[in-house]
Amino acid sequence: MAAARRRLSVGLGLAGAACAILGLCLLLAGPLIVKEQNVRIDPSSISFRMWKDIPVPFYMSVYFFEVLNPKEVLQGQKPVLNQRGPYVYREFRYKTNITFHDNDTVSFLGYRKLFFQPQLSHGSEEEYIVVPNILMMGAAVMMENLPSFVKLLLSGVLAGLKQEAFMNRTVGEIMWGYDDPLIDAINALVPGLIPFQGKFGLFVDLNSSNSGLFTVNTGMKNISRVHMVDSWNGLKKLNYWRSSECNMINGTAGEMWPPFMSPTSLEFYSPDACRSMTLVYEQSGKFKGVPTYRFVAPKTLFANGTDYPPNEGFCPCMQSGIQNLSTCRLNAPMFISHPHFYNADPSLVNAVKGLHPSKDEHALFLDVHPMTGIPMNCSIKLQLNLYIKQVPGIIQTGKIKPVVLPLLWFAESGFIEGSVLNQFYTNLVLIPSLLDYLQYIFLGLSVPLLISAAVLMAMSQRTTTEKSLCHPTMQSKPSPSSETTPLLHDAGMLSQDDAEA
Predict the structure, then answer these.
(1) Residues whose CB is less than 8 angstroms from the CB of residue 369 and which lie 6 or more positions away in sequence, other chains included
(2) In the prediction, which pLDDT does 494 show?
(3) How far is CA 321 from the centre of its chain?
(4) Which of 27, 196, 212, 407 has the most CB atoms in a 10 Å sphere around its CB?
């Protein structure tokens, strides 16, 4: 019986040790599977194709603000706006010039191609919309501090070209550009003021153009650095802003992040905004069965330097909620903000009529799978605004009161679906989850098995000891006869006889 218990205890002990070892291996191997095979930038990784040619269907929805009372605005009245749209574009993203370097980095050029989707849009690109004459009003504000005779000369040129403060253009022209003789006239009058030629449009440089040369970490040597920007256009820091902190290039290129994320914040560099941005954790959730962290813009993102001192470097500032882009946009009086001045100073909303800020409609968000750092669902929303005002000497500006006037806002949205989602879920969610459960199952089994083995071993030893105490003769039997035994026996007998005598 004791031998059987010993054999059973040894078997249970080995099984418990095996479960413990397997559990510990899975505990260590789970992250390694994600790290080594799935999320690094390497042609053999699962996520490489997703990184190179983003398969997620992205859509850019554009909403214009039509000015309903342009004549009254010239007389100093408050602008009345009407939102038009959305005008929806299918967005394809891909990378070219992918070059791997010896220092664990890779360089690439990222491109976007946009195609109008009439079936998803509320209107066509041929529709006309009344908006500010962006080129003329922008140039007027830029020339405000020039000598009076220069402004009077420009005013005469504007009159000759029949330029007015507001224009009636099609959606396609405003987006993708139109020929304007004003460009050549301004360049002739004030060389270098607007150093470009050809068509003028708000998105003329967006379609089929790259966002600059990014160099990012591959994560081959250090997975915690994967996708982190090493340089942009060869720069380690920007030179647009007034502080070292604001000129820093932080985070990733905005497409993926390092794995094993914590619910705190994430950073990315945006060439469109000319700065790095930080989003903060809001809540955990699930997107089609995939666990996610939701990150949103903090209220301080576009706060001015008075309300949030770290943003002082982005100044000259106006009210909180808008960021001045003039230093990186040819000194044009352009500002970015959340749509409808969401999270901005109420005075910006009250300066015009027709805005209705709402978190549900106008807040941006990113839903990221924290284990891999890959976005599952996102919607990045920004608004373009033009600062306009009366400029003495340029009669075309009339009596316009200073106002940051919304031009348009857009939402770039996309989410993983279909076969891409299925592959992602199987390889990066289901299998790691099974391994995660198995590690705890094995570790959990190892404890009772090892305890049972120890108990059986103790019981076996106790049984052996009890048998020894119950049968002492088994241990005191005379030793087998030998040549010395009779001598000892006789010696004992002699000693006994002497004692009796």
Answers:
(1) 290, 291, 292, 375, 376, 428, 429
(2) 40
(3) 21
(4) 407
